[in-house]
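Suppose a colleague, Dr. K., hands you the sequence of a protein chain of 528 amino acids and asks what its three-dimensional shape might be. Before reaching for any lab equipment, you can write down a predicted structure in token form. Begin with the sequence itself:
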Amino acid sequence: MKKKTLVFSTLIFAFSICSHAQSQIAKIADGEHHGIKGDFKDFGIQNTDTILTLDCNEFFTDPKTSLFYADFRKSMDMAFEAQVNTNLTEQVFVCKEGSRYNDSAGIMVGFDPTVERIFTEITDSNGKEHRIFAGEKVIPGEWIKVRIKGVADEDLKNSSLSLSVSVDGDKWDESTLEYVGPVMPAMASRWVIGRGYPGGFPNSLQVRKGAIKNFSISGTGRERHAGENPIFTDRLTADPACTVVGDRIYAFVGEDCAEPGGWFTMPHWVAYSTKDMKNWECHGVVLKASDFPYANPNGAWAGQVVERNGKFYYYVTLDDMRNGRHAIDVALADNPLGPYVPARLDRDPLITDDMTPDSHRWNADIDPTVLIDDDGQAWIVWGNGDFYLSRLKDNMIELDGEVMHMGIRNVSEGPWLFKRNGKYYNVYAADAPGVQPEQLAYSMAESIEGPWKYGGLITGPAKFGFTIHPSVNEFNGKWYLFYHDGSYMHDGEPGGDCRRQVCVEPLYFDEEGNILPITLTESGITKE
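The predicted structure, expressed as tokens, is then:
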């Protein structure tokens, strides 16, 4: 059957897979490892027999596809056929883009004009680039079969990669490479057909007057270890808020139910608990947004559970369908796992947007955090763009007195209050100048009413996603930072901005009480 050829101009076309059912990544099992397979469909090309003509155009996976998040640390097998029609410039047929703020590609496969041969270039775990060549000198116009296979040792400390090239399919020339680290780094980033990385002017290593066909890729990631991120694997979770009760720490989270590429859909809050920080038990749904009659049933935003006098109070953010604004309300239970019942059904929500008219954002009244001070006074802080503070009455379901603006720098959202050695801390999602995704920052004070001194950034952005949300807790004598990240796959399907998973890192202080910077990792607390 004659293959159909697609020809494109120098315009760059981006293709996306628009629905959950259309994802063409197949989940496969390989012992204790999980892998995926992909082809042209992951680049928006539905006919896998297509010959793609490449002439300064490109095709790429986007965050709606699982290949974007694929883990090929344990093994990888990539194959395609390429046609080089000009041997004057370096050209990359396939690449895996580097992670954020990294100029090195995960892998590139293309044509090197200095030797007129096919090459592959891999970046090892130390950031060093390695390039190998295979095949005879390329003859313009000939179809060249290319195959790249990689495998790592059991502990992923060293890998080997082979590049095999053939013109007729019978005689293959192979080169091999040994390097440090896994086959490929695990990162959420695009696979691109038609250029190298980084792209853009003046030299994006674009293919000129070439073509590619019969592209396929498969591979496996490493097995999972207790304590690594993400810490919950049964569902997509976000906005962690943890509470210690007795010998257990409870994590209360929202469940992300958005389809791949979709917008936030969060119908309820789920509880988990553990005694050792590594083996978590899921207790299921403990509260729904729809339990509040006025609320959007898919708007179970960030909240926090606190205990007082044997009762548990769940402060949550909701969408008020009566006016299209945000609201903060509270539900009550006799134990940390509920059932939680709205505590103010006979009156307005605890906090509404009209209480903070001086905020520079219209939706300022979100993300409550509550601290019960040593003298028994309960305080609530919340905000988006600005943070506000108020006392709570002893009944914990009413404000007591004025709403105070806190005057804290770089505020985005998601405050988290805690107290350590007589000092007050507010850890929060920050809008740092010049950086689009949120990062975590903190401020400190000698009094909860301020003044608050800016302590700086604690983390960079999540590995993927424009939000990040903190919970800081002491448990069994150690401090931890919980947050969410959209860079991880779940059951073979993509993560994303609105498909996040909760993670955890150790948190440390210096002698003056300053929080030390934290690198967000996949290893999490496995080394503890």
